[in-house]
Amino acid sequence: MNAAAFRCGTAVLAGRPNVGKSTLFNALVGQKLSIVTPKAQTTRHRIQGIVTRPGFQLALLDTPGAGAAAGSRLAHAMSREAAAALAGADAAILVVAAPRWTSADGDALARLVEARLPVVLAVNKIDRMRPRERLLPLLEDLAGRHEFAAIVPVSAEQGENLDRLVDAVVGLLPEAPAAWPEEQVTDRSERFLAAEIVREQLMIALSAELPYGIAVEIERFEETSDGRTGIDAVIWVEREGQRKIVIGTGGARLKAIGRAARLALNERLGRRVHLSTWVRVRKGWSDDPGMLRRLGHGAP
Ligand SMILES: Nc1nc2c(ncn2[C@@H]2O[C@H](COP(=O)(O)OP(=O)(O)OP(=O)(O)O)[C@@H](O)[C@H]2O)c(=O)[nH]1
Ligand SMILES: [Mg+2]
After folding, report:
1. What's the CA-to-centroid distance between 181 and ligand 1, angstroms?
2. Rounded to an integer, what distance in angstroms lies between the CA atom of residue 69 and that of residue 90?
């Protein structure tokens, strides 16, 4: 590589649900921009995160896990958003999780090949593979599946080998000047991040009962006279029974969720937040084009 050449471009993080795309995205950007939960299909939107360093500017796109099972309009919107992210990208990072390759990984790879993107394979969760030699047969198997630009074993959670991954991806970017202001980290607003942080706490607290029937809409986001940020969040559920579950006995569950979300918001926004939450029922919201538009899923 010409030492003087600055490189700039976009790489999309792709892969089946739950392999650790968002964890890796946050680790690479160095900020928690994307929410992470133990549940599949956590990410619902395309989220940009920009890494600017001497010599390069790399815009990463986190995307919803491909291959959503449910047939709702929301699921279609998520797939569309993941597919649309491929269109403008210069390269892809296909994230898979040790210890094995699955047919859903193959489907995700096929979409990247169809989009004619060079693919760096990130083999995530290698912290679960002890001793390290256990990785070798997997790496051998992966090398035979596609002409990957590079295969890089990583642990997103432990920050292992991420520099090597970045080097491999940056090498695929075109020589071009920086396209974004140096201080810009994301295309998403604090308002969007606030909705996501509330949804993250809901998904974690309610993972057994109703992880997917929930959406969060921010109705108010403003600085208040006492120097705080006032946030009103509406939690949409599909049925009255779900509303009761979210609220919990005597409101205890919603109170705990609201507290956890407020603490996360204080940290993420770097200032004190006053968070109010309401739970509202909207039957079939995940199939309602108007609701999906309001939730930022574009025109279904
Ligand atoms: N052991 C281990 N767990 C990880 C690692 N990276 C992510 N995880 C865990 O894997 C789960 C899923 O992580 P996410 O980052 O939400 O995965 P994702 O691919 O973005 O999932 P979707 O948004 O649903 O497609 C979470 O419980 C993470 O903590 C890793 O390097 N090692
Ligand atoms: Mg994700």
Report:
1. 30
2. 28
pLDDT < 50 stretches in the chain: 300
Q: For domain 7-170, which architecture applies? A: 3-Layer(aba) Sandwich (3.40)
Separation CA 261–CA 255 (nearest Å): 10
Structure tokens at 170: 């940056």
Handedness of CA 284, 286, 247, 209 (dihedral sign): positive
Ligand 1 near 23 CB (within 6 A): yes
Pocket-testing residue among 13, 21, 24, 36, ligand 1, by greatest number of atoms within 8 A of Cβ = 36
Q: Does any ligand 1 atom lie closer than 6 A to the CB of residue 124?
A: yes
Q: How far apart are CA 133 and CA 138, in angstroms?
A: 10
Alpha carbon of 174 to ligand 1 centroid (Å): 30
Phi, psi of 192 (to 5 degrees): -60, -45
Cβ–ligand 1 distance for 161 under 6 Å, the answer no
> Cα of 294 to ligand 2 centre, how many Å?
21
Q: Is the CB of 38 under 6 A from ligand 1?
A: yes
**pLDDT at 254 (0 to 100):** 97
The DSSP code sequence of 13-82 is: EE-STTSSHHHHHHHHHTS--S---SSSS---S-EEEEEEETTEEEEEEE-PPS-----SHHHHHHHHHH
Give this prediction's pTM: 0.96
Q: How far is the CA of 9 from the centre of ligand 1 (A)?
A: 25
78 vs 167: CA distance, rounded Å: 29
Structure tokens at 150: 């590079």
Report the C-alpha gap between 56 and 88 in whole angstroms: 18
Question: What is the predicted pLDDT for the residue at 101?
Answer: 97
Class of domain 190-294: alpha beta
Domain ranges of the chain: 7-170, 190-294
| pLDDT value for 300 | 44
